[in-house]
Every structure is written in structure tokens, then in C-alpha cells.
Amino acid sequence: MVTVNQKELIAKEKANNPSLLKTIWREIRHDKLALVSLVLLLGIIITAYSSPLFIDQEQLQRVNFLETWEKPSETHLLGTDDGGRDVFGQLLLGTRNSFTIGLSVTLIAGLFGLTIGLIAGYFGGFVDNIIMRIIDFLMVLPSLMFIIVFIVIVPDYSVFTFVLMMSAFAWFGKARLIRSKGLAERELDYINASKTLGTPSWKIMVFEMFPNLSSLVIVNMTLTLAVNIGLETSLTFLGFGLPASTPSLGTLIAFATNPDIVQNKWWVWLPASLLILVMMLCINYIGQAVKRASDARQRLA
Amino acid sequence: MSLLNVKDLQVHFPIRGGFFRRVVDQVRAVDGVNFELEPGETYGLVGESGCGKTTTGRAIIGLNKATGGEVLFNGENLATMNGHDRKKHIRDIQMIFQDPYSSLNGRKNVLNIIAEPLRNFERLSPKEELTRVQNMIERVGLSPESIYKYPHQFSGGQRQRIGIARALMLNPKLIIADEPVSALDVSVQAQVLNFMREIQKDFGLTYLFISHDLGVIKHICDRIGIMYKGRFVEEGTAEDVYTNPQHLYTKRLIAAIPEMDPVKRFEKMELREQINVAYRTEYDSYFDKDGRMFDLKPLTPTHSVAVHQGGM
Questions:
Q1: Which of B86, B107, B153 would best serve as a mutation to test chain A binding (most A beta carbons within 10 A)?
Q2: What is the CATH number of the domain that holds B254?
Q3: Contact A188/B at CB under 8 A
Q4: Which residues of B touch A192 (CB under 8 A)?
Q5: How many structural domains compose chain B?
Q6: Is residue B102 a part of any domain in this protein?
């Protein structure tokens, strides 16, 4: 029988084993740089996402020729652009849009890459061969050019189609990564054991194999989040991203194509550039901490 | 009727090479193996590494595909069944794995590991499930709080017990033990072996015990099959094989067991030399011209040896 004393032991044991999330938190807390980054990033994101509460988007987008290229002042914290629109407001809404796009691309591409990678890694052999040849083919395609062509030929593209298009070219790398680790994992006996216990294949993939690869996935996703935000911004900068009516960090930086603006009207493009720099650095430092948390040998905490 | 009847089992792996990765040749990992298991007995498969004993076990449970022959379990052929039909039988055959470190998923706690087979075959409420797992964990001699621990918090012997508990959860009839103790140190080996014997009585299990350790096999097995290069060279009761080995290979194998008694050491050494001489002179009467073993011929009702038709 289970005695009272044993019950205490059971409860203690239940609490004693920290989950991955707890180890990540512990790791971040012990790394000053990562902690500062996390606070800063959270601050930026919360401000950006709550901005629609105090910024009227229609008001912001209204062109006002009386106030073009105004310098930063009390009414316009970061001045105005060529249409007399408030740069600070655009910065907040732009951060929100850019981050949403970066995040959704990471999640969609991550989910898709993970599924394909797990299937290729788990089954191996013939299935793996077919999937890998397809990915090899897709990888040599110049993805940036495809996205640009797509945007040019599709008449009314929205944020949603833009995200889908970017995701369609972002999953190969992840699928490969998961597949290579999965191939090593499937040789281990715990997978064989699950097979002999009658567990169906999809359950083995999702509940046995995936948890063992999860740290890899989290690390990879964190680091590609920064890359995807950058990709969105650079596409918009080149003029092939979001339409100019939708504010994003890229539309603001795109003003820097004009030498006069670069030299004399710094308030239009500089804040957005700095914000991207800060956000990417923050995400990277957090990513490094997460990476260390997933590998017991590298942990600082 | 016998519980398991393996008839002419073959597992061949293709070797690919050349243009378009054509099949150039076959590795005959298991090449025509026959044996029967009676309910309640322990059958030992012995042989050097690479002789196909593990592949035989894996082919029976379905981890490797049998390329030929039959695996009759309760009279039904598992070798040709598809995955769906197989699932009905799979709960009666379970496996204990060699390496207790890689055979348990490090991300799952013991409760989830042991409950996995239950969740596949029985619909139980979490409470019933917990009771079943608690009972089993007590039966294999682990403390009740260990169900919330993770595999890395256990020693090798304890982990192997967890592996055994998982295999027993569905009350199987046949357990394939693939070198269950070879990854453990000697003192723990005895513990686990004795424990396996105990549960054999309690649960009415039949073991197919795969090992390269002749001492372990002698300790636990009723009948023994000696394998070499994917085929049986000799089969018989433990008594038959250890005291009256007939095949040249079996003789060499038995002679290789170290002698504990210092007085008998020289005798043993001479015996070994005799066998070595015999190996050179009598090779042809034990192996055919391709170096392949002959089929098994019965000597006595329990003892059979792979020799040429003409006799010894």
C-alpha cells in the first residue's frame, strides 16, 4: 500500500523535475544579457501591440500637405514623412506588422518543415529519398526572386498571401534539420520499443520522437524569427513587400533610398533601423540562452 | 501445440551497388532457421556476434521483415501478415531490449513509459491506469514514487526492470529478451536474471532468450539453439549441449568457457588443442563446400546437430 510518507515522496518527485520551459527561464535569468534582451523585447512588443488603443490608424494614414518633413517636436515625437504622417505612430504600427509577419512565417514554415522532416526522418529509406530529392530541387530555386515575381504578378496581394508566400520558401532548411536528427533518433531502441508495444506511427512521431527533438526546434525557431523579420523588412525596402499604405519597418527604412533623406531627414528612417537592430540582437541573445538551456553541458545556470 | 513455431525463417538484406543502386548481392543474416517454443519454457539462442540471433528475434516480433519462411504464433503466420492484422497478435509478444539506456525515452517519466502499452490497447480512466502502473512498479521491485522520475535517475538494473515492467503490462505470452543483461555489470545481471525467472512462474511466460553469454544461457534456459552464420548448428536441452556437444563449432564454443578449477586447466587446454586440430582436419564433414552448415539431423528426440547426411 502507498503510505502517507510515500505520498509525500511522490509529490516531491512530481515537483522535482523541471520542464524545458522552466530550465529556459532559469537559464535566461542567469544570463544578464539575455534577461535585459527579454525585458527590452517584451517592452517593444507590448507597446507595439497595444498601440492601436491610443493611435487611430485612419488618422495616421491621412495625408496632410501642410506638415510634410517636419522635424521631431512635441506634437510629432519623431517628426513626419513626405505625406505629413506621424513617424512615431507608423513606427509602432510598423513594428506590430513586421513582428506579426515574422512570427507567422516562422510558425507556419516551422510547422510544415517539422511535419515533413519528421515523416522523412521516421520512415527513412524510400520515403526519405523521395522527400529529400524534392527538397534538394526546391532549395536550388532562387527564393527571393520567386517571392518578388509572385508579388509583381498577383494583382491584389494582402498581408496573408505575403506571409504564405514567404513561408512557402522558408521550410526546407527546417525539414532538413529535423530529418537529419530524426534519422539518428529512429535507430534508438525506444522507437523500436514503441513499435513493438503497438503504438501507431503518427503517435511515435509526435509523442516519442518530437519531444526528443523539441529543443532543436525551439532554438531554430527563435533564431529564424530574427531572420524572417529581417527578410520582410528587406523585401519591403526593395519595394516588393507590403504595400506602401500598410506601415511596416521596411516602408520607413525604404525612405533611405533617397540621398537627401538619408542626409537631412534622419528622423524618418533612423529610428526604424535602430529598432530592427535592437530587436534582432534581443532575439539572438534570447535564442543563445535557449540554445544553452537545451543542452545540459552548456548551461550556465 | 507449440506456442511459437519458426519454419525456415530467412532474413536477407540486399547489398546495393553499381549503377542505379541495383541489388548486387544479399547478406544472409538469417538463412533457414527452424525451432519451436513450448508454452512456459525458456529457449536460448546463442552465437557469436553477427550470427543472426538478434535478427531472428526482431523478425519474429516484426522489427525486421522476414524475406522467407513462416513464423507461426498460435498457428497463425505472422511473417506474411500486414500491419493491421498483426496488431491483434502483437500484444501477446513483447520484447526486452539490450540497452536499458536507449530503450527508454528520456523525455517521458516512468508512469508514461509503462502506461504506453495500456493506452494503445485498453481504455482506462487515469485512476485505473495509475493503479495498474503502481501495482506493476511494486511487482518489479521499484519504490512507488519512482513513477514520476525520469529514466536518467535510475541505475542500469533499475532501468532494465522498467523495461521489463513495460513489456509485462499487457500480460504477454511470449517475451523475446534480446541480450537483456549484457549491458549490466555482473552482480546486477544475476539479480535481473533471477527476477526474470520469478516472473516467468507468476505470469506463465515463455522466453526466447537471446545472448552470447554461455554462462547466462546455461543458468536460465531449458533448451538451447546454437547459431552460426545465420543457421542453427546444434539444438538440444541445456544438458545435451553443454555435456555432449556434437558439432565442431559447438565444441569450440563450449571449450572457450574459462575453467575455474586450476587443476583442470591443463586438461582444458589439451582439449582445446584437440578441437583445433579437428577443426583443420574434419572441417569438410561439418560444412559444405560453400562453408554453409547442413540442415539439422536429430540424434536423440531432444538433440539435433547440423551434419552431413552420411553421419559423423
A1: B107
A2: 3.40.50.300
A3: yes
A4: 63, 95, 97, 103
A5: 1
A6: no
Looking at beta carbons, which residues of chain A come within 8 Å of B95? Answer: 192-193, 196
Chain A nearest C-alpha distance from B133 (Å)? 13
Parent domain of B58: 4-92+170-306
- Chain B residues with beta carbon closer than 8 angstroms to that of A10: 144-145, 147-148
Alpha helix positions (H), B152-247: 156-168, 186-203, 214-220, 238-243
Q: Which of A12, A189, A199 sits opposite B116 (nearest CB)?
A: A199
The alpha carbon of residue B4 is apart from the nearest alpha carbon of chain A, in Å, by 17
> What ipTM does the predicted assembly reach?
0.84
Is residue B54 a part of any domain in this protein?
yes
- Measure the CA–CA gap between B158 and B142, rounded to whole angstroms: 7
Which chain B residues contact residue A16 at CB under 8 A? 148
B111 in a domain, yes or no? no
Residue B239 lies in a domain: yes
Q: What is the pLDDT of residues B185-233, one digit of tens each?
A: 888 888 889 889 999 988 889 999 999 888 888 888 999 999 988 888 8
Whether B312 shows a pLDDT value over 50: the answer reads: no
Q: Does pTM surpass 0.90? A: no
